[in-house]
Give the backbone structure.
Amino acid sequence: MLALWCPDLPFQLARQREATLAGRPLAFRDPTSRRMPTLWMVDRLAKAAGLSAGLSLDLALHRDPGLVVLDPVPSTWMEARAFLSQHLLTFSPSGRLGRFGEGFLDLRGTERLHGPALDAAERVRRDLRAKAGWSAHGGLSRSFTASRLAAKAEDLIRVVDDGAERAFLAPQGLKVLPALDARARERLHAFGLSKVAHLQPMAVADLGRVIPAPTAYQVILQATGADQERLPDLEAIPSSETVFRILNPPQAKHDAGVGPWIYRTVWGWRLDGRHLRQVSFSWRDEDEVPHAFRMAFDASDLRSFSQGIEARFLREATRRVRIQRVDLEAWLGAAPAAAPLLMEATTAKRLRLEAVQMKVQQRFGGSVLHLGVSP
């Protein structure tokens, strides 16, 4: 299994569009921040200067006057994500996209077409550089978790041999295991379990006494490098998805940050090429009492939709206990073939108009701009 990672891909795209940004620290402004602008994403140069996501814009520019802050343009990212999916599809039908700039490809059974797995992985990386100009690293292993971790190394393609997965994962912290959320990690830390090596000799039944049994089974598979399940078809778009956020420690309803969390989640689905139809929002109190409601999605204004869910949540969460967990269950479909942005025909004009649209909506609200209206 090949894990491909394009480090700082949004910033690679920005530098491709404007050559003067080369060598300068870059950051994207958080589109959900209004009164006090904050940083949403920062590149490696900005991180080296001590900047991080969530930092206020004023403080960031004070620390590093050479920082360039960009406005995110979703359509550019959507097109880049679609290109990455099509590029991976030319080598294998089985795979999936992770977070932006990350892709996974199942190379089993492709030896007659592309040769040994290492040769195929190198060709995937080289062709991506030749066609799109993107630099990428890769990790190759039978284990999904091991390949993903190996891709973060600065090597071109790092191989984890069969049987070496346990030793490769053993010294890592528990954050490398995708099945463990923050709450479960904190619980394991309380028992003195902080490394993957601490979990490898454990039985599922023993670990299931500390964390939920279904999660324990997945954790043991990932910790031992035995997670070798076959990836889905790249062209298949999931019709539904459930995401959850554990509030650790539990927080008051006004501090849960439901609106910005939903905004970022739905935007991530947009970058995947999926269009939201309907959502069911639920939450659990500190004493595990569940609550839920359902809402239809208004595609005209994502920000107002996110704020509407948060407002209804604040109205209906009347029990005077803190919130422990919030869940979002979504019904998804394929995105429209063309973005209805002022009926522009060319990509360059559409990108410029979308950037202006985001700035106008950020300052004056969504009611001042009517999408799909041609003069």
Observations:
- The chain has 15 helices and twelve strands.
- The two ends are 51 Å apart (CA to CA).
- The CA atoms of residues 281 and 293 lie 6 Å apart.
- Residues 347-364 form the longest helix (18 residues).
